[in-house]
Amino acid sequence: MSKRGAPPEVNAGSMADIAFLLLIFFLVTTTIETDAGLDRMLPPIEPPDTDVVIKQKNIFEVNINKNGQLLVEDELVDIKNLREKAKAFLDNGGDGTCTYCKGQKNPESSDNPTKAIISLKNDRETKYSTYITVQNELVGAYNDLRNREAQRLFKRDFTDLEAEYLNPETDPARKEDLKEKVKRIQDLFPQKLSEAETSSGN
What we know:
Layout: H1 15-29, E1 59-64, E2 70-72, E3 75-77, H2 82-90, E4 117-122, H3 128-154, H4 158-166, H5 172-188, E5 193-195
Parallel strand pairs: 1-4, 4-5
Antiparallel strand pairs: 1-2, 2-3
Helix pairs in contact: 2-3, 3-5, 4-5
Family: Belongs to the ExbD/TolR family.
Main location: membrane
Pfam families: ExbD
């Protein structure tokens, strides 16, 4: 009876090198997802020189209860109609000083886009997804109106101008030109989105 030969040995000397190369490969090619937040620029804390009086008609109140229902200006509103209502408020031009406004010029609504404030109030039990959806619709209202004015003045959407301006690869000279255009549109419809203190038990 013949003896079986010993099984061939596997050379494991380079296995560590191969594992290291695979590790490097996966580290380089893997994308890590990051949580998307809300892009908000908070104003510096500066005491006002004089007391600012804000008329109630210049405040657009949006309340979200714990069930995700919207109460806009004391009226129950479907979330799909929120953007149009916010645009109508911002674009109203009630005091006649806004030359570019195309709203109804209702004297009982906002006087001017520069004076219009959107106030958002949530319940402590409001779902985060509902909160984000409402925020998106309100910011979308500003963007729609800014896009309209950017098209009128520069034949481009405001969102495109802003994206090009914020792109780090944009030429510095071009960036200066874009900065002026972006600021001009932002001044026409300044984003005044205020968050009131969160309530509970609504």
